[in-house]
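User: Show me a protein chain along with its predicted structure.
Assistant: Here is one chain, sequence first, then structure tokens.
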Amino acid sequence: MGQSNKDEEREGLVGGRLIVSHFAHYLDPKKRLTIPASWRELVGEPSALYIMPGLKNEKCLYVYPAREMPRLLERIRGIGSGDQRAKAFARFLGYKSDYVSWDPQGRIRIRDDLLEFAGLAERVEMHGAWNHIELWNEKEFNLWKSEQGVEQTSMADMQRYFEDEM
């Protein structure tokens, strides 16, 4: 039983379950965002999140449960200490990221510079991305979907990515 939990955590599962689905919430006047109760339950303890800028030119924010960070840090450490560009990237990512806990109502306050990076001012699209949450501006997300062609991709096309698992 203990081994199963370790295997699940290694695969990026949060408490053995995946963060899926999507929600649209609005920032309140104090720029707080409510994390859905079902996702807060998945995050568990510690009831805290790391927020970082999206990668790969994605104008969004990645939100990781605090207990996911050791796995991500291992990947960063594995890049190699001789790669100066990778070290600079890791340093910059740490500088641009934030650590937040939610209040009793499940709200988090995202730093202004992160909100600005992702273009989040009112409505926030929240998307489950298996082991993390992505926060998007609705227009940016629609643009990303259009550029990627994901809505035009048929289920048959998608199946090839999962054939080994089915």
